[in-house]
Amino acid sequence: MKTYNVAVVGATGAVGRTMLKILEERNFPVKEILPLASSRSAGHRIEFSGKAYEVKEAKPSAFEGVDIALFSAGKDISLTLAPEAVKRGAVVIDNSNAFRMEPDVPLVVPEVNPYDLKRHKGLIANPNCSTIQMVIVLKPLHERAKIKRVVVSTYQAVSGTGLEAIEELKLQAKQVLEGMNIKPEVYPHQIAFNLLPHIDAFDETGYSLEEWKMVRETKKIMGDDSIAVTATTVRVPVFNCHSESVNIETCEKITADEARAILSRAPGVVVMDDPKNKIYPMPAFLSGKDEVFVGRIREDFTVPCGLNLWIVADNLRRGAAYNAVKIAEYLVEHNLI
Amino acid sequence: MKTYNVAVVGATGAVGRTMLKILEERNFPVKEILPLASSRSAGHRIEFSGKAYEVKEAKPSAFEGVDIALFSAGKDISLTLAPEAVKRGAVVIDNSNAFRMEPDVPLVVPEVNPYDLKRHKGLIANPNCSTIQMVIVLKPLHERAKIKRVVVSTYQAVSGTGLEAIEELKLQAKQVLEGMNIKPEVYPHQIAFNLLPHIDAFDETGYSLEEWKMVRETKKIMGDDSIAVTATTVRVPVFNCHSESVNIETCEKITADEARAILSRAPGVVVMDDPKNKIYPMPAFLSGKDEVFVGRIREDFTVPCGLNLWIVADNLRRGAAYNAVKIAEYLVEHNLI
Fold it and tell me: Which residue of A130, A175, B253, B267 is most buried, as measured by CB atoms within 10 A?
């Protein structure tokens, strides 16, 4: 079996660590693993398949001989180094927002639009976490009934911000319980026992970039510009797993029962929908899962053809690292690398 | 000035305590205060205007001589005792779900439909907390542009469940931080660092009663059955103040700027909307306020006439106790008692 030199850029971050774990779990055909990070984190040691590796500084020359580079070190690093990696012959799967909307760059969720990988030119974008889990559920419903419009409100975990945000939530929660003063550092305001309707920067429309990502990436991944999405994205005091309240309007009628049947057969989706028996997806219990969980499936009685859905997934795995590794697997299986 | 004998039923609960506090703060013309509760809580002492009162058992005879009875002790107590209080000449303002949809019973938010109080027959219903804060914001927009449809997702604080839920969140948060096991008692699942898309019981449609309350009460309070509402209600690990992500479609176009101008003039509403400067309503900072706070006001570009709104209010005060006391004040001012 062919094996590959795999670089993980941002290897010490929340997503990077999860990428390494998933490459290991899934026995990805790794020849050499190359953990890279900023000069600040270089020198740290990480484990991979029972062997210790030193984290090296991410710089252009580090990509010599690399076959696949998984990037998750922020937009600026991707903008600078992803082209350098591609120049040196690596296929880059980039988790940042740097290239997602470039027409030349496939934006892929393997369960939704794997065929877009065929046209890659060395650079592939991993979508935003909150978009990935939504489109995995929307795709089979779109194929059946054509989705016209989506109104989504998110409940996003702090792990999406990074390890330092997980620590901030822990620290602040303790401080609130003990009646101490709080000094927010990672977020602009207290996150413990609070909600921040603020993810990423705001533009002149009043929308945040996170909201625009859901609008634009959904159209591109689903390959249908006619799907209208409006989003409100909110950070909640949950450690991991994003949740979404999603309202859709379709061209054709789907009952809740039919939606459950369709979603039960959909790749990567688990229907968890028996509210009378207190069964619905909850973020605290779905960390470590690679599927997208959907429940609270109900007809929306305010429109002729509408549904409400509650969608939860592990944003670090399903919304980032697992998606990137699945893309790499697809490239390998289909000789696209 | 005329003064009144005021009973507070459920005086030891989260809403009852807040009712007593607000009656005191607002110098409501109280002749005698009569704190009532279940036999379990009878004998407790509460303070009102610097004087200690013994909590008496809520039973029919307790309402002899009472002018105004504020009920907040759950649906069953209201069903049993509210008619007994009315029979004895009291005007009842009931915070439970027992009578809200009775055609004979006015369901009132004083800033929205005070005129409905004129037709009361001794029993007035206080709407559901999550509905109150929404309709206060929607009413002025409805008057300007006629709202056709509302899609709302809520982020509801544990105080809505009661004092025991506040304690459960505190305890569980501590237990999670210390790596201890959790045994949910008030909620069916862990609430600390988690989300429960489950408020009140579910019916055969898959909707919860809390969701139906928002659908039905909005139409009744706004006096317009044509307003279509669909809701997803979610409990979040926040101590107090409910938050709501609200999407509306209107018949006529309102820009975000015009919406801000309208809402700035609306009674009981505070516009808090400068996201670039990190200004938006957040539940952790709005406890103790009587206004409804609205921010993240944006045009919804997926429909010809639509807006997204983020609405936060103190559910114990604005969503319950303050609303009830405002109703009582209106009755007094307009000789409706």
Answer: A130
